[in-house]
Amino acid sequence: MLPGGDCCLHCGFALAVVDEHYGGDAVLLERVTDAAGVLGGEAMQQISVALDEFERRFPQLFTAVYCGALPQQSSLRQFGFWLLNRAAVCGVDATRPNENGTVLVLDTHGASAALVHGYFVECYLTATDSSAILQAGRTAWQRQQWGEGILAVLAALTDRLRKRAAEAAKTPERFAPGRAPQEPKAPRFQRIRQGHRKPEQTRRKS
Amino acid sequence: MKLPALLFVSLSLGCVAQTPAPPPASSSDPLKDPLTENPPAASSVTPMSDKEETGAMSDILPGFVDPLTLPGEQSTAFGSLFPSALWPLPPDEEFEESPPPPLASAVSEGGALTPGIIASSFGEAAPPALHDPQGLLPAADAAALRSLLEQSVNSRGGFRMSLVLLGGAQQVPVSLDFDALVSRWFGGAKGLLVVYYAGHPERTLAWFSPAARDSHGGETMRSVLELGTKEASRLNAPLQQLQRFCFRTAIRLDRLHRDGDLPQPDEAPAPLAAATVEQPSSMLWWAFAIGAQAAGLGAAAVWWLRRKRAANRGEEVILLPPQECTPRLGGMHSGGSGALLAFGSGAQPRKGLA
Description:
The structure holds two protein chains of two kinds. Chain A is an alpha/beta fold.
């Protein structure tokens, strides 16, 4: 692992920090997890169909949806980050590793949603794109229509990825991953009195 | 500009005044040309101008210009420029005015119809296609119109038409029941009786047989006659009015019989100025049609392409180019990139990833 790959160079955040909350073992994750129990059978069916369609159009990618009520202290993005690194998504073949996945975490109690991408997907979707994708489900979620919001987010994700794929076909270098963050070096200061001799020693010598 | 001309005229007059007077022309022999008789001397006579030749200056210079007398002018009784020796005049009796045609005089002819006319026009049997009981039409015109109506209407098995030509101010007897008359004449056939008043096509009367009314409707039949009278009214001569009426009505009746529908009324010929103005618009009509077709084809092509692209958009499989990614934050599959949305009312987003 490259320097800086273990933790944040500024705050020290790492996967190990999240492991302390949710555990460090691998877990099994369904493509659609309704821990909050807000999705009906029809909505589950529609979401499954939408996920199948997404995986058919993007043979390299997959998407998982986690809908639950998380504790107040937890962060949705941290939870999504932990899921993508620790979970094995059921029904997804081996040709789609987790770095090619996207997890939509929906907190129905906290009225928040997070979209977390794997390493491969994040090359094509910026934070602005992710925010725009989440905004597609905002209206439905405000009306407690959780299924419709998730479908809208999936549609927006599909559309945005299709555009980025077209752009990448023309200019692939535009989506090349950035450099790894450099390890910060120790601060180096120029001492004001550097090179000066101590007066007592000078006197003694003289 | 006029000063040099006046100077030239005064100089030329002075030259002419110095020339000797020519000898008087002998007027005893009118056939003798005075110019050939007394040719002017080239050295002593000023060259004659065009005005002198035409005699326009004879008033100014009466002593120098000889008025020419036309041969034989004295011998004619009228003293005109066209003597009888050169242009023999026709005898006076040929200029006598010919009597006006009976149809023109019948425009204002009124009065009640004689029993003979009534019997021949509205008798037991239907009159011929064109019935002129008073002989208002010249024989040739009457024969031509009768032939037209016979061949165009009556002999085609469609309508049986009987046109009775009356004077312009005459009246049909009110005691006659024309509907019953028409029903008796034509029976189950499509027939019509038209009473045409010479010079007054707007007074035309028509009665239709029940079969004609049932087949085409009374309004349609009436409109056929009205269109004919309207077009006839545009003309002035009574004969031309009648010819126009017969011609148009025959065409419409034949069309009505064949197609079962009344053709659109023919518009009056536009004046020449209007025609020249409208000609470019009629030529532009083709350009507009071609442009509309091209625009339609273009729109259809765009619509088809967009539909095809939309259809392919849902069917196509999208592959993203592979990328070499660097793990971070200890995560082997994800670095936690993404976005967070708080959609609750007044809700604040929770703390971030790091």
